[in-house]
Amino acid sequence: MSRLRVHNLCVSLDGYAAGTHVTLEKPIGDARALFSLVRHGSIHGIGGSDDPVGLDDVLTSTWAQNIGAEIMGRRKFGPQAGPWKPDDDWRGWWGEEPPFLTPVVVLTHHPREPLEFENGTVFHFVDADAPTALGMARELAGGLDVRRGGGPSTVRQFLEADLVDFLHIAVVPVTVGQGGSLLGGIEHVRELFDIETVPSASGVEHQLWNRRARESSASTPR
Amino acid sequence: MSRLRVHNLCVSLDGYAAGTHVTLEKPIGDARALFSLVRHGSIHGIGGSDDPVGLDDVLTSTWAQNIGAEIMGRRKFGPQAGPWKPDDDWRGWWGEEPPFLTPVVVLTHHPREPLEFENGTVFHFVDADAPTALGMARELAGGLDVRRGGGPSTVRQFLEADLVDFLHIAVVPVTVGQGGSLLGGIEHVRELFDIETVPSASGVEHQLWNRRARESSASTPR
């Protein structure tokens, strides 16, 4: 079955997955330290370069494996809020080579026409709740898995709705002080998962959360 | 640059990477316990199934990433020794779906015509020393990395010749007693590598060996 996966979600020691004050110059707000330890050069696979391959790279390299679509929040697509301006030629943070290479469902209260790129990335702008968005992404994924991209508020939304099957968290040894909390107030979702914790030489602690097998009926005792 | 990588090399606590007595029924000899802890379902990437994703799967999933060719010993291709029999219709252990999907250089003292499969796998049978075989594999790989498959005696040969750039060893908590030793007598090669050690919840200890940067001239002091 097509599963919903979250990858490379960097969380600070004080529990924040993104900073505040996102601007055009600061795509992840004031939490840049969160991402400084995790290289993202291997999201399309290790190898093909002279870089050494460490555990962090190996874990990062799972990002695109058997993924057919992504769901992201509007904030990940761009810094704007409110209705799109008719003359806005914004096409995302990534120029003409977005790294996704698949359809991407962008959650927004302001739908607009899709944006297509030559490398296979297509952004669809959709006003939908989490289950509906997931159904659309599954259809676009053609049987492959769906990746839930950031930010933390939208990952939270999918965790609360129990739609996440796999979650890779990278706990980074920095504190951020304020920002978007991943699990604050929804700690109970942890009980739905088997969690494997893996320390890395870089100081990052990786957590692999696998949703326990779901019963076919909610009333069936385990 | 195209690098030579070794993946998922299972080694017992007493240092053996394969058992003795390889037969048609026992492709890895009497060392089956060596491989029982490491699932190989994810060699073409995690996801696309309902299986949970653990650290062992993540590491296994790097096997094919950016790989354009494999080099293997004849023993990995089949149990026969000596000249090929003219009426032998052996096409490898894997039936009509070998998992390689790329050219494969099979090292043998008895060259023969290549064997092609519809899924992209092509076995080339070559009598060559390690550097020559690597040169041929690099050409076949079209700029991508080359994977060195088992068994241990051929991996040893490439380690001794300092041709290996990356090595992933999975130390499995079993003893085998006898078999093919990976590092016995060539322990000094370890000093050429930076080694990251990663424990797994399964009891397997993973080691990521990255060859330190090679100087352009051997006489240049570090």
From TrEMBL, chains A, B:
Q: Name one GO molecular function term.
A: 5-amino-6-(5-phosphoribosylamino)uracil reductase activity
Task: Provide the GO biological process annotations.
Answer: riboflavin biosynthetic process
Q: Which InterPro entries match?
A: DHFR-like_dom_sf, RibDG_C
Residues in domain Bacterial bifunctional deaminase-reductase C-terminal? Answer: 8-188
Superkingdom, natural source: Bacteria
Protein name as it appears in the record: Dihydrofolate reductase family protein
